[in-house]
Amino acid sequence: MPWNPSQKEIAAVSLLNGEQRYHYFVKKVADAGEVWGLWDNGWAMAGDYTGKRLLAVWPHSAFAIACGKGTWSKHVPKAITIDAWLDTWIPGMKRDGTSLAVFLVSGEQGTVVDPERCEIDLRQELEQYE
Fold first, then answer.
1. 94-130 pLDDT tens trace
2. Are the CB atoms for 102 and 59 separated by under 8 Å?
3. Whole-angstrom distance between the N-terminal and C-terminal Cα of the chain?
4. How many Å apart are CA 106 and CA 100, to the nearest integer?
5. Whole-angstrom Cα distance, residue 66 to residue 106?
6. 92: CB partners within 8 A, 6+ apart
7. What secondary structure letter does DSSP report for 33?
8. Domain residue limits at 23
9. pTM value?
10. Which stretches of the chain drop beneath a pLDDT of 50?
11. Rounded to an integer, what distance in angstroms lies between the CA atom of residue 119 and that of residue 69?
């Protein structure tokens, strides 16, 4: 059965600090088997203070929609399967030098995570399901 966070859950999780939202992201992505981004002829990207490219990702479309404003107002949520994420996306981001802006919320930056950390954390979480 697909997971659909309630409005109460969305509001509560959005108040967590960045590191807490990252841990929530890892658990929910492992549970649901999907990573969500925003798409409009390209993925929603952010940048850090050094100019490094950051792919914006969330654990559910509802959280992504909440950030689909301003520059990303025409973007729509799009899912990436966990298998594609681990087998294709993570290696590609490592190769390209792209990091992640995990679980941005309105008015606050997401947690910047390198693809290696994301891969390790997701694989460790997935091991608990085997």
1. 999 999 999 988 766 778 999 999 999 999 999 987 6
2. no
3. 19
4. 17
5. 7
6. 98
7. -
8. 7-127
9. 0.91
10. none
11. 28
Rounded to 5 degrees, φ, ψ at 50 are: -95, -5
Give the pairing of strands 53-57 and 99-102.
Answer: parallel
Nearest of 59, 55, 56 to residue 21 by alpha carbon = 59
**Structure token digits, residue 103:** 């679980």
Structural contact between residues 4 and 62, judged by C-beta atoms closer than 8 angstroms? yes
The CATH code of the domain that includes 63 is 3.40.1350.90
What are the C-alpha distances in Å from 14 to residues 115, 116, 127? 23, 25, 27
- Asked if residue 83 is part of any domain, the answer here is yes
Residue 2: what residue type?
P
Indicate the number of domains in the chain: 1
Q: Which of 23, 29, 30, 116 is nearest to 64 (CA)?
A: 29
Per-residue tokens: 47: 């940048």
In this prediction, residue 106 carries a pLDDT of: 74
Q: What is the pLDDT of residue 67?
A: 84
